[in-house]
């Protein structure tokens, strides 16, 4: 493997680099269509415990912590562009305002709660919204694991599957044939435009969050 710090010899390479994965496998002749995006979560001050702790709706998912804080995220992403060395900075965005508004709409009696924390990160999404967990045919010593947008990276099964692909050449405990990279062979080059998953300007992001 050629890196900025020199050549590293290895028998097998696993690319699990989140949104950067597309740019890292491209020089190997492997096409991996990904749309990088920012995902953000907000946390409110505590409220009395509600009968329903977790809610999924109004473009949100989240739950109430045992202390009473509402922790919510989800909804429209802020779409970004990535290269192999990106990102260089990770500022907060107007997406937060949109999140807070939708929490207030979903839980009107909690609309007075103040947002006390937020956190954000970068996720990547495939065209069909499912992960890629695949040992590539050519080159034969390359395995790709991507699609952090569904939280797959935190699942212990993902690590076991990657281990199996590298050492056994196949997943030994589940049929993951639907997760191969080949399913995107006919995906058009401009697929992100087709879906509207393209970066917006700061001004557009503010307008979207207000709308
Ligand atoms: C705000 C937020 C909240 C989330 N909440 C949840 C949740 O509640 N539950 C859940 O299951 N999931 C959640 N997720 C998703 C979860 O974080 C991801 O699924 C998981 O982190 C993906 O793991 P990964 O290893 O594939 O990718 P990442 O965690 O993105 O790791 C990729 C790694 O590759 C490194 N890298 C990139 N380029 C290079 C390079 N050129 N060379 C070397 N290293 C490189 C990066 O530095 C990074 O460490 C959340 C994500 C965000 C952003």
Note the topology.
Elements: E1 2-3, E2 6-7, E3 13-15, H1 21-25, E4 35-44, E5 54-57, E6 60-64, E7 70-73, E8 78-79, H2 95-106, E9 115-125, E10 132-135, E11 142-146, H3 156-167, H4 191-195, H5 202-210
Detail the poorly predicted runs.
none
* CATH superfamily grouping of the largest domain: FAD/NAD(P)-binding domain
The CATH topology of the largest domain is FAD/NAD(P)-binding domain
Q: Largest sheet at a glance?
A: 6 strands, antiparallel
Q: Gap between N and C termini, in Å?
A: 47 Å
What is the name of the CATH class of the largest domain? Alpha Beta
Cofactors and ligands present? flavin-adenine dinucleotide
| Total tally of structural domains | 2
Descriptive notes:
- This protein is α+β, with helices and mostly antiparallel strands and 211 residues long.
- The chain has two domains: 2-33 and 127-195, FAD/NAD(P)-binding domain (3-Layer(bba) Sandwich), CATH 3.50.50; 35-126 and 203-210, D-Amino Acid Oxidase, Chain A, domain 2 (2-Layer Sandwich).
- The protein is 20% helix and 25% strand.
- The chain contains five helices and eleven strands, in the order E-E-E-H-E-E-E-E-E-H-E-E-E-H-H-H.
- It has helices at 21-25, 95-106, 156-167, 191-195, 202-210; strands at residues 2-3, 6-7, 13-15, 35-44, 54-57, 60-64, 70-73, 78-79, 115-125, 132-135, 142-146.
- Strands 4, 5, 6, 7, 8 and 9 form a six-stranded antiparallel sheet that branches. It has a three-stranded mixed sheet with strand order 3-11-10.
- Helix 2 packs parallel to helix 5 (202-210).
- The longest helix has 12 residues, at 95-106.
- The chain is globular, with a radius of gyration of 20 Å.
- It starts with a strand and ends with a helix.
- The protein binds flavin-adenine dinucleotide.
- Flavin-adenine dinucleotide binds at residues 16-18, 20, 24, 39-41, 73, 84, 119-121, 123, 148, 151-154.
